Amino acid sequence: MGATSFRLRRRPLTVVAVALVLLAAVLVVDIMIGDFPLTVSQVIDTLLGGGTRRDQFVVMELRMPRALTGLLVGGALGLSGAIFQAIVRNPLASPDILGVTWGAGAGAVSVITFAGSLGVVTGSAASLGLPLAGLAGGLVAGLLVYALAWRQGIEGFRMVLVGIGITAVAGNFTHYLLTVGDVQDAGRAMVWITGSLNGRGWEHVVPVALALVVLVPVALIGGHVLGALQFGDETSRGLGVRVNVARSFLIVVAIVLASVATAAAGPIAFVALATPQIALRLAGTAQPPLFGSVVIGGALVMLSDLVARTIYRTELPVGVVTAVLGAPYLMYLLVRSRREARL
Amino acid sequence: MGRKSLVGLLFLLIVLVAVCLASIAIGSKEIPLSGVWHGLFTPTGVEDDVVIRELRVPRTLIGIAVGVALGVGGALMQGHTRNPLADPGILGVTHGAALAVVLSIFLLGVDSLVGYIWFAFAGAMIASVMVFLLGSAGRGGPSPVTLALAGAAVSALMHGLVSAIVLLDQQSLDAFRFWQVGTIAGRDMSVLTQVLPFLVVGLVLAAFNAPGLNALSLGEDVAKSLGVRVGTTRSLGIFAITLLVGGAVAACGPIGFIGLVVPHVARAFTGPDYRWLLPFSALVGAILLLFADIVGRVVARPSEVEVGVMLALLGAPFFIYLVRRKKLVKI
Question: Does B185 reach chain A within 8 Å, measured CB to CB?
Fold first, then answer.
């Protein structure tokens, strides 16, 4: 890549800074609210190691892992979406359309329907089997799309079309499975494919955190390459980018991010598609800002879960709220920033 | 081009007739071709005649209507958004219909597939108007990118509401999950007669829209300089799509994928000229839908696999093969 130069613009940085502050605030509020309400000072005290044993339990065992799962999953989905959209150069590209999400859905719903009707999915099988099936389904579908789209290199257009094919198979198969089992299984499957943070613990936080720790820096470095890729293959080659290698590598990163996130919380709707578009419009950049997408994705999911937990006595799955919350906001941004059509 | 395309159309017509005959003959009760002839033209009321006239013919006709509507709707959609990802559902039509159906189940206790028709159609209309207004708010009227994004946003919103209702109320889920797969089984002629006027108007509008679409595919500026009124053309097209896809969803639930795949298949025959692309898409859509339905009847005897599922299982591998092999005509 040769010498690297950065031009820092103020607006994207401001947006990221504001979003980070917001993120921290939402995290604290998220931990405060629940059946045992806590005050801000109690939360901060407990996080620093103080507090009563009850506070410790509520914060560290119940609310913190759930909030962190939401934050990390949202960040991973946002980043994954941003990478896909930048590579494919299409605002509709996201893990949802490139097979990952519905592949994961098909895997998990298969487990619920087939093992559920045999009475197998209880306890450990449910807590371990579902995420694993989701992870496997997502990875298989994503990599299948990648492999089938490979023809002397990867081309965004072809990959999207192959992705649509695989998504259609997995999605319709999932809908079919919903009609096969009894209605209880269908209900549980619906919760999973909507995406939920109910009962998520540290065992869900750790894999996503590991994936993000490794892949965010990788993606950010790759993002510099991505900037060059936006110009199209010929120009990028002219600029000295090895197009296929860079693109393949980033696509695999995006697939893994989306799969891990989906395995932890189910395919939370709309985050991967909307986050990069929201970030792009807030930051006023020409392509989805990667780090901005991480932060805004995390904030979106955590805020949605907060709403889901408080708005209705029966807890709604977070996926319902991300759509209901994120969609109007994207609409507002669309209407407001219409002067030039971007991407 | 003209002559070759005419031969192609004729060929597809013949295939369609063959598929129709197969659709009438094949099912959980096999009827020989002589029986099909007997049932169609000289019915005497024997069991086979009743099966043909009451079940198979309505199902086949609905299949043709829906296949044509979704094929043409898909081609228009991809033309107007200039986005190969744009499935007719992207205008929010499918999810709007789904929300209306779920509300009709949840609030009014509607529980028959035929009872959903008008709710589905109204929902489809409302969603599509919302998307159009949202996508064209501000200066410059509706642009492909904003239309697609507005559609995705409205769809996500509606889908979220559907999930919320279905998750809170198990009875709604139980009814909804059977609507959601999309099937042309179990409908009688009244379903077809109710949606047919909308489909016909939609097809006529689509035919008028084709020359304008050709100009638009050169870019808006070029189209303007050719004397095309961009806003009018686009509005007309969107209205046609809404009628076609809304009618199809009302008749048989969301049948995804076909509206998306058919134009790509048709484009491989015709190239980008919409005057040919639209009729080819219509025929390919009808053939594909009927074929998938037939396979769905045979593959899991004595029960059936719904056409929406079969379409994806059959169509997707073929589609991927096509994507890999041919040089696809870009939009």
Answer: no
